[in-house]
Amino acid sequence: KDVQKESEPHVYLSKEEVKEKIQSYNSSVTDKLKMTLNANGVYTGFIKVHLELCRPITVQSSQSQGRCAHSTNETAFYLPDGCVNTLHISSTNTVREVIEALLKKFLVADNPAKFALYKRCHKEDQVYICKLSDREHPLYLRLVAGPRTEMLSFVLREHETGEVMWEAFSIPELRNFLRILDKEENEQLQILKKRYAAYRDKLEEALGGVWKPG
């Protein structure tokens, strides 16, 4: 289970330190996703983002996988578990820009303000997770941590329920969410009814055995 962690103070690197870090990073990568340092000091590279979304997303296209609920022009559906996406970004790209790029890549019509990017890291047999501010630079964090994803990985999640700006959702989105919730509620209700019906039958069978005249 992830443990919430406060954001750590930013450590600034000199140009020479950045160059050395990139050389060390590239010598350690195993998936050929290396970083490139440009003459102006800006560097580019790749980050992988795990999509851990509990609520449905809204896309413009009807060609999607998962459980769907249709509106006039949009489709709301759940992304499958374990979805990971790779982005090519630069050291100047902020967290907010990374979130926007991810949503654009998936043709997501939802407001980017509904989502947050987290960093997850392992330390002393514990998994920590920390929400990144919109102004942080994910590629810099990747460079400092190195290429090993167990040291640092990125996770896209929705804001916590108490933080959700429901006014950012459109009316069709909210109706789709309600439709999906109603369907899931009915499915769970049927499962519970079957479970308790089976339990009741076993109890009645046991009672019949106890009170059966000898």
From TrEMBL:
Keywords: Cytoplasm, Cytoskeleton, Metal-binding, Microtubule, Phosphoprotein, Zinc, Zinc-finger. Transmembrane segments: none annotated. It is found in: Cytoplasm, Cytoskeleton. GO terms for molecular function: zinc ion binding. Residues 163-210 form the SARAH domain. It comes from the Eukaryota. The keyword Transmembrane helix does not apply. Residues 71-161 form the Ras-associating domain. This is RASF3 protein. It comes from Ceuthmochares aereus.
